[in-house]
Amino acid sequence: MNNNEKPNPLLKAETIKQLPQQKFSHPFNPNSEISGASLSEAVGLQRIGFHLAKIPPGKESFIYHSHEFEEEFIYILSGKGIAEIDNQEFEVGEGDFMGFPTPSVAHHLRNPFKQDLIYIMGGERREYEIADFPRLQKRMFRNGKQIQIAEYDNLKPFM
Description:
14 strands, about 160 residues, four-stranded antiparallel beta sheet, about 5% helix, six-stranded antiparallel beta sheet, single chain, mainly beta
């Protein structure tokens, strides 16, 4: 698509089924494995992400994390999973919704069950973000596409 073309704002179900599937895993979690399609990118949304995602049995979403500025949500379409939210575990399944206003509590999703966990995830796409990985004692700073990671022990107050 060139700069003069605008994406079609309507994605019919048949088109969604044919979208290219992308795979992602979090670099800090060797058990992270998500596949799916970005519906928001397919229609040209720039400020929010809206993704159809799948975690296979025995795998996890990303890594236990929290956000400083970007709100995030998850809606389970099918399957079951374990949501870790603020150091508590909850079994989640079809029709369950999770929302993480900012600054968010730490959260994570894993699939210890025998069928795929299929869900919609989405949230804001801000230019700047700070995310914490509390179990790793690390903080991520993102400025556009530039990402920096710091150990908690190396973070010092300015004054």
